[in-house]
Amino acid sequence: MGYTVGMEANTMPWRITNVLDERVRFIALYLQHKLSMSDLCKGFKISRKTGYKFVRRYLAFGPQGLCDLPSVPHHQPHAVSEALSELIVALRACWPTLGPKKLRATLGEDFPGIDWPAASTIGEILKRAGLVTPRKRPRHAQPSSPSTLTPPDAPHSVLAADFKGQFPLRNGQPCFPLTVSDLYSRMILRCQALTRPSFEAVYPLFVAVFREHGLPNVIRTDNGPPFASCALGRLSHLSLWWIKLGIRPERISPGCPQQNGSHERMHRTLKQEAASPPAANLAAQQRAFDRFVERYNYLRPHEALGQKTPASLYTPSPRPYPLRLPPIEYPAAMKVRRVRHDGCIRWHGCMLFVSETLAGEPVGLDPLDDRLWALYFGPLALAVLDDHTHSWLPARRAAYIIQNLRQEDTD
Questions:
Q1: What is the CATH number of domain 158-313?
Q2: 377-408 burial by CB neighbour count: b if 16+ within 10 A, else e?
Q3: What are the structural domain ranges in the chain?
């Protein structure tokens, strides 16, 4: 394939003894899976970016990928040499889900100084090699209604959490992959194979995420359990815990997965690379997920990120996971009631059912006028109470009233 061994001008500080031998030893230790990438790179005194670059080159091109290409490839003007075409095809064979733009960005990162062809030319090379499957032209999607979802403007401003569709493993056991990603950097913070989508199963995983990465401002989910329930405000035990931590639950509209489009797109790649076909058992499937997350975060460029990797844009949250939950507090103008074990509160001489999910928790009621009261848990408005009938307004009407009041406050 025309490789030439030599020193790169911008090589990180590999030991001077023999650069190629050090790279081979680095890959050998990496393949043993005994050390983390951070510890491995620290021992070789190289950056993680350099370590992942040579892992990617080895996975795509084998031992020859650890050598250096000549800085000026021998090719005719307006034509791509056979050696470069072979590199492109070899990388695509290793990364079948990468398109021409991502392939070009990856090759430019791995082999700087090479005049790589345009993405359209790379696409023609892949087509001639039989590596491109024609796609059906998608139907024009109907425009969605205006969304009030929070735009991610920094790492940990908005996380997305969801279950990728359930699928059976080869031993017949069901697998529910829980995924958590940072919507700003696209960094996957967790991809865990579970046997059921319950609060008891996901709670310790979110604790681990928060302890490792810190607390986000918002977590965006769909309306299914354990993220939401049929209670007032669709509050669940999981979202109640998030509110206590100072995290605002945010839900997409029912039947509108496009509102969480980048996370759903990641699910499609996850299925292609780590779940087709499924693994033999849960432990093997988790190992496949772990390999996918490492490649997705550190090796795979993203067009929406300017062909950068998620890890290059991600930073941990400045808000650490607290040792104790802070108390829920309300403004002095609100009437505070504590929810009884049966889900009721005492209100104006009668018992008013609120939600069993809130049992033992304080709630605040804010007067909107001489008849209506807004029910809050922390900063989250859950419902509107009609004090004349002692009944909760329908969810759509309550949301409309609260939204208009918020708009008036901002004006």
A1: 3.30.420.10
A2: bbeebbbbbebeeeebbeeeebeebbeebeee
A3: 19-128, 158-313, 335-410
